[in-house]
C-alpha cells in the first residue's frame, strides 16, 4: 500500500540493504524518504539521534544501519562489531519511542541462531544453543536488537518489528578484499584474477558449508511487505513473543558450488583451490521461511540471475570509480 504522506526514515541508506529499501520505496511512490549520511548524523551519539527525531517528525523507521562484514572482519574487529551495533540500535529504538514513531522495522541477521541449529532454522530456535564463535559479538548485538523491540512493545505498546534476513548480496555491496561477505569477496577475487591473468583463485575453507543467499532487492521488498502488514497480522505471526520473522529464499548451496557459479559468471577460466586450513564458519545455515510465505511473500530472484545482476553492478561501479 502506498502512503505518500508518511515520513519514513531509512537508517543506513547508503548500505547494501538500506539503499535497496530506498529503491523499493521510491519505486512504489513513497514521496517523503528521510536519510542522513554518517557525517550528517552519528547514530552512536544519543544526543544527536534525539535531536534528529525531535525535529524530523518521523512516522516509520527502517533500521538498516549496522557495522557488517565477513569472517575476517568479525574476527579482527570484535569490539567495534558489538559496541557500534549495540549503540546504534539502542539509540534509534529508544529515541524513536520517545518521539512517538508509529512503526519501526529492525533488520537483524541469520547469525543470531545457534551454530548447530536444526535445519531449516525456525524463529523459535533463537537462544537455543551456542553461537558461531567467529561472529558472536555481532550476533549478540543483533539478538539485543530483537529484544529491544520486544521489550518496548511489551512495556510501551509500540509497534516495533524485526526481520532476520539470510545472507544478502547485490548492488551496493562491500567488495573489500578482506572485510567483505562471501559473494562480494568471490566476485572481487575472480574479477581481479581474470584481469591479472592469474591461473588460480584460493578460497577460504573446505567449500563444504551450505549457505542461503538472497538478492538484496528481494529483501527490501520483503521488508516493506512486513512493515505494511496490519498490526494484528504481524502479531499473530510472531506469537507468543511479538518477536521476529525470517526472510530468505528457502534454498541453499554449498560454497564449492557457489564459487564455481561465480567463476562462470565473471568469466575466470583458471582453477579454484580450497584452503581447508582456514575456518569454515557454521556448517549450514538455512532459514525456515514458512511464516513469511504464510504472510503472502516469497523471494522471486534465482541465484544465477541475482549474481549476474550483482556482477553487472560491480562492473558499473568500477567504471564510475575510474571516471571519477
Automatic annotation (TrEMBL):
<dbReference type="InterPro" id="IPR001509">
    <property type="entry name" value="Epimerase_deHydtase"/>
</dbReference>
<feature type="binding site">
    <location>
        <position position="211"/>
    </location>
    <ligand>
        <name>substrate</name>
    </ligand>
</feature>
<comment type="pathway">
    <text>Nucleotide-sugar biosynthesis; GDP-L-fucose biosynthesis via de novo pathway; GDP-L-fucose from GDP-alpha-D-mannose: step 2/2.</text>
</comment>
<keyword id="KW-0511">Multifunctional enzyme</keyword>
<keyword id="KW-0413">Isomerase</keyword>
<feature type="binding site">
    <location>
        <begin position="12"/>
        <end position="18"/>
    </location>
    <ligand>
        <name>NADP(+)</name>
    </ligand>
</feature>
<feature type="site" description="Important for catalytic activity">
    <location>
        <position position="109"/>
    </location>
</feature>
<feature type="binding site">
    <location>
        <begin position="107"/>
        <end position="110"/>
    </location>
    <ligand>
        <name>NADP(+)</name>
    </ligand>
</feature>
<feature type="binding site">
    <location>
        <begin position="165"/>
        <end position="168"/>
    </location>
    <ligand>
        <name>NADP(+)</name>
    </ligand>
</feature>
<comment type="similarity">
    <text>Belongs to the NAD(P)-dependent epimerase/dehydratase family. Fucose synthase subfamily.</text>
</comment>
<keyword id="KW-0521">NADP</keyword>
<feature type="binding site">
    <location>
        <position position="189"/>
    </location>
    <ligand>
        <name>substrate</name>
    </ligand>
</feature>
<protein>
    <recommendedName>
        <fullName>GDP-L-fucose synthase</fullName>
        <ecNumber>1.1.1.271</ecNumber>
    </recommendedName>
</protein>
<dbReference type="InterPro" id="IPR028614">
    <property type="entry name" value="GDP_fucose/colitose_synth"/>
</dbReference>
<feature type="binding site">
    <location>
        <position position="204"/>
    </location>
    <ligand>
        <name>substrate</name>
    </ligand>
</feature>
<keyword id="KW-0560">Oxidoreductase</keyword>
<feature type="active site" description="Proton donor/acceptor">
    <location>
        <position position="138"/>
    </location>
</feature>
<feature type="binding site">
    <location>
        <position position="142"/>
    </location>
    <ligand>
        <name>NADP(+)</name>
    </ligand>
</feature>
<feature type="binding site">
    <location>
        <position position="181"/>
    </location>
    <ligand>
        <name>NADP(+)</name>
    </ligand>
</feature>
<dbReference type="InterPro" id="IPR036291">
    <property type="entry name" value="NAD(P)-bd_dom_sf"/>
</dbReference>
<feature type="binding site">
    <location>
        <position position="280"/>
    </location>
    <ligand>
        <name>substrate</name>
    </ligand>
</feature>
<dbReference type="Pfam" id="PF01370">
    <property type="entry name" value="Epimerase"/>
</dbReference>
<feature type="domain" description="NAD-dependent epimerase/dehydratase">
    <location>
        <begin position="8"/>
        <end position="229"/>
    </location>
</feature>
<comment type="function">
    <text>Catalyzes the two-step NADP-dependent conversion of GDP-4-dehydro-6-deoxy-D-mannose to GDP-fucose, involving an epimerase and a reductase reaction.</text>
</comment>
<feature type="site" description="Important for catalytic activity">
    <location>
        <position position="111"/>
    </location>
</feature>
